[in-house]
Design brief:
globular; mainly alpha
């Protein structure tokens, strides 16, 4: 669950991200509304997310967010970011191939592949850490500042996925609009 606070740098959507999860809006799960329960934390995450995106290609941003959301089984964020990617002009073919990008490399640039591999490694960090070869490949495609932003973006989407999953967010209920 990320927010688009910088409309020019993202997908043209304006975001306030005041979500409702306590009962209403989530099929009555009775879980907290994170934005209301911890507003300073929520605003800090929005700021972190906005800072992470700075200078990154919006298409790359969405690919990273989509892949992490696949891995984390976050339907809420997956729905949100595939829609954002479509609005930004991403093709259906590429969106369908993100989950199997290793078998469909020809759909993605070497830079995108490096970012997707890094996304997988960081998202699954408990499995095997971040392998040196994966990090080196990403470092070969991004300068230090870009790599820092890519890493920050991976961290933010993993955080948003966990917020969405733990508060019972329901796919298709993107309150940003």
């Amino acid at each position: 669950m990320t927010t688009n606070t910088n409309t020019a740098a993202t997908t043209g959507t304006t975001t306030t991200e005041a979500t409702t999860t306590a009962g209403a809006g989530t099929g009555g799960t009775g879980r907290i509304d994170f934005a209301k329960a911890a507003p300073k934390v929520f605003r800090a995450l929005i700021g972190f997310d906005a800072a992470a995106r700075e200078g990154l290609d919006p298409a790359l941003v969405e690919l990273i967010q989509i892949r992490a959301s696949h891995l984390n089984h976050c339907a809420y964020c997956l729905h949100m970011h595939t829609n954002d990617a479509r609005k930004a002009g991403e093709s259906e073919d590429r969106l369908h191939m993100v989950a199997v990008w290793r078998e469909a490399r020809h759909f993605f640039t070497p830079r995108e592949q490096a970012a997707l591999a890094l996304t997988e490694a960081v998202t699954r960090v408990a499995d095997a850490g971040v392998p040196d070869d994966v990090y080196a490949e990403a470092a070969a495609h991004f300068d230090d500042a870009e790599l820092g932003h890519v890493l920050a973006l991976i961290l933010t989407i993993n955080t948003w996925n966990r917020v969405a999953l733990s508060t019972g967010k329901v796919a298709g209920t993107d309150e940003r609009r």
